[in-house]
Amino acid sequence: MKLRLFDYLAIAVSLLVISGFSVYAYAGRNKSGDVVIEASGAQWIYPLNVDRTEAVKGPMGDTIVVIREGKAFVEDSPCPDKLCVHMPAISQAGQWIACLPNRVFVRVKGNNRQQVDEISY
Amino acid sequence: MMKPDTSGGPWLRINTSPGVLFAAGALLFPAFLMQQDLVVRALQIVLFITFNAFSGRRVRPVQFLIVSTGIVLFNLVIPTGRVLVSVLGLPLTEGALKSGLFKATAMTGLIALSQFSIRSDLRLPGRLGGLIGRSLFYFEKIMGERRRIDRRDIIGSIDRLLLEVQGPAAPGTQAKAEGSTSTWSGVLALAVIVCVNWGALVVTLVHPRPFWG
Amino acid sequence: MIPKPIPFLRVGIANLPILLSLDLLPAPLLLLVVLLKVLGQGLIGGTLFSYVFLFSAVGSFASGLSMLLFRRLFGSRISLVGVGVLGALFSNTAQIVLARLLIFGEGAWLIAPPFLALGTVTAALLGAFADRFAARSQWLVSAREIG
Lengths: 121, 213, 147
Description:
The structure holds 3 protein chains of 3 kinds. Chain B is mostly helical. Chain B contains 8 helices and 2 strands; from the N terminus they run ααααββαααα. Chain B folds into 2 domains: 11-121 and 180-213, no CATH class; 125-171, no CATH class. Helix content of chain B is 63%, strand content 5%. A two-stranded antiparallel sheet of chain B has the order 1-2. Chain B is flat. By secondary structure, chain C is an all-alpha fold. Chain C has helices at 16-21, 27-45, 51-74, 80-104, 108-136, 138-146.
């Protein structure tokens, strides 16, 4: 079975494309991580790379968690101090925002681990 | 997959023409696709599968189950929404499950719908339809003779088969298949089915049910 | 018109007539054969309304067009093996993208590498078979004379 020049090239190109897809599918994905929201004994998971707004029910009412442009933050909450609203948006694994009065806990879970400077507020 | 034509065959096949059946299918198509309620979709799928029996096509529900499971699993891999249960470290989420079920029902429902509404002797009009008809004629002829293909001399035997099929004169117009005109009961039955499905769509759009809708 | 045995129900084998006709037919006729193949499979399998038909149509036209292109482009420096492999690459990639959009979501990429790998292998085998068939077939000779 004589294979000609471009047959080999075609096979090479195919192998290249397959490797590319392998890297993308198995190694390079989910760089952005997921947001885990815990409240009222339940847990929610949302990817950081899709914009959305979720109303999380707590004993005091709904805490509004917003995911936008790869970051998550609390837009509004029924707690008196609104500390959670003023906390900066989170996007790295290990970061978190909590509304203690309303018992809502938001954190980022993911593969990206970066050194995070001290956050002071 | 198809039963050979027997006189006094499946009810729908006798009582409707391929064109009418196709039209019914085309009308059902958007009614199914736009349906958001998962339970209603499941019911519609069961409906379409049972109609396949009336249309003369034997379907294997196992195949649908396998396809559906695959689609749902693929969607569950990407978690979204409320976590229902965690299996081996992978959280299974409500959002991913609904999304998976929606796509799986879309896939299997459309397959069941089109299998029931498209008869193999449906002929599209015009020259294209004629071409298709002739291609399928040759295809069926070849399939009929395929026992003659010898494993040890694959190319030679296929070659001889092709030469032989080509030989005789071009096929004349085929005799009209049985059930090629509709009866009133057939058309009525189809009309009822179409109305029921569109009715279901309207009802679920006006009164969506929580979670399933 | 020459009989074109079209919808072999096994997935890859259906491409065989297309491969064989690459050199026989001018481009518009070849694409017509692709269309007939897609519609024929849709009618027999009864899948015209479903996603299956969409996948079949997209895949077949992607492979048909790309195979035409590469055959014309590279001429005798590529055999049906290479042409088939490239055709499968385009066809399967298009189908994966479609699957990502319609049924699998982001999970589609997980199956992309094995799916493409399998497609490449079967395309290479099919191309090799087509090459040998084209070399030996009497029927093809008569088809050339008519066309």
